[in-house]
Every structure is written in structure tokens, then in C-alpha cells.
């Protein structure tokens, strides 16, 4: 008799534990990341100093930005490969420094951008390194990026992302404690795990094609970010799938959908 009740209690505990895991699994709260900062708002521009300020003011989890290494070894924050006929990575910073962004700011150096970021302590930095011409240039860009993030005391707030698998793996080697996500949409969660990466940061269509990847990633201890989700129905769909992060040009709308 005593033995039976002991077993029943044990099974009850096992059941409770399983239930609590299920509840935790279902409660993944999707966090919002402003794509190129919060730029679709007055006075802002993509990858501008204003864009990280406005992302922080909107209360999002993180702000994404794009980084290139110039020919003369300066890290700059800018999205496109070219501006006014100048290839960013083949130009010296002095040739780019006159270029104005849509809100009148100049192209920020990474250092200027991080100086602004330091004023907004609650926002995570989602650092995209653009692909560079050769593996050697990428290694150089990764090394300088990690060095600057660490010098500025921002390592604990920074996540690295890259389309280049070479660059993503270089970040993992150079900053083994940092979270590193791969953007290109073509590797399974298992393949990313085996390369030591923290998760996938894929176009939402890749996740619509492979919705099982969200659960597979979570079971492997990886996280899932999706870009660039600007449609409310897709925001809802991604939230229901339980993605960890949603990258969007419309952060205020995404925050509403997540809160619904
Ligand atoms: Mg980007």
C-alpha cells in the first residue's frame, strides 16, 4: 500500500514536470528587433545614429545595423554596397565621409555608432557584418569588429549576424562567448549547431517552408530570428510558431502584434 502511494506520487511529479516544460515551451515570447534601426519614422534614416536612438525610445529588444570595412581599414555603418558610385569596401573613409544619409547625418563610423549605442543601455545590438570580397578581408573585418566591441565594453549586449558562413564561423572563433547567427537560409538547425553557431536568422519565407526548424532549433538549444517581417499576418504567424526574435521595419506594429 505504502509502496503504491510512493509510486503514484513519483508519477505525479514526473507528470507535473512534463507539463511545466510544455508550458514553458508554449510561452516563448517573441522579441522585436528594429531592422537597420527604427528608420521609418520622422527624422530618422537607415543605420543612422537617430535610428538606434528611436529604436531604444520605441522600447524594442534590439536594433540591427550593417557594417563594412573600408579600403583603409575603417569600420563604417551602412547597408548598401555602393553609394554615389563609390563601392564602400573599395573606398577610403575620407571619400565616404561627405555622403549624407536621408536625415542629413553623415555615414557613421562604427565607433560613432557605438558611442551613441552606449547612451541607450537597454537595447541589444544586432551587428551584421556585410560579406567582403575575400576570406582574408572577412577575417580582418571580424577581428577589428570584435576588438572594437570589446574595447567599448559592449560585448554582453552584442549579437553577430552574417550571410557569409566564413564570417559567422570567424566570429564564433574570435568571440566564443558571443551569440552568432547565420542569415543565408540554407542550413538546417543541426548543421548550424555542429558549427557552434547560436541559431538561425532567416528570411521568413525559409521558415514558412520549414516551420519544423523552429522546434528543431529549440530542441538543440538554438534560437530563431526571422527577417524582415512587415506584414501583420506574417508577424502573427511567426509569433504562433514561437520564433525568438522578429526583425522588422515596423517595430511599433510588431510590438502591438506580439502584445495581442
Ligand atoms: Mg542587415
Explain how this protein is built.
The structure is a single chain. The chain is built from 11 helices and 11 strands. The radius of gyration is 21 Å and the shape is globular. The longest helix is centred in the N-terminal third of the chain and has 25 residues. The strands form 2 sheets. It has an 8-stranded parallel beta barrel, surrounded by 6 helices. Helix content is 43%, strand content 18%. α10 crosses α11. The protein has 260 residues and is an alpha/beta fold. The protein has a single domain, classed as Alpha-Beta Barrel (TIM Barrel), CATH 3.20.20. Bound molecules: magnesium ion (MG). Magnesium ion binds next to β2.
CATH topology: TIM Barrel
Write out the distinct hetero groups bound to the structure.
magnesium ion
Number of domains: 1
**Can you count the helices?**
11
Q: What is the CATH architecture term?
A: Alpha-Beta Barrel
CATH superfamily: Phosphatidylinositol (PI) phosphodiesterase
Could you give the order of the helices and strands? Answer: HEHEEEEHHEHEHEHEHHEHEH
The low-pLDDT segments are none
How would you summarize the topology of this molecule?
Elements: H1 2-26, E1 31-34, H2 49-58, E2 62-69, E3 75-77, E4 82-83, E5 86-87, H3 93-96, H4 110-117, E6 124-129, H5 135-151, E7 158-162, H6 165-174, E8 179-182, H7 189-194, E9 199-203, H8 204-209, H9 212-219, E10 223-227, H10 232-241, E11 245-248, H11 251-259
Parallel strand pairs: 1-2, 1-11, 2-6, 6-7, 7-8, 8-9, 9-10, 10-11
Antiparallel strand pairs: 2-3, 4-5
Helix pairs in contact: 5-6, 10-11
The structure holds magnesium ion (MG).
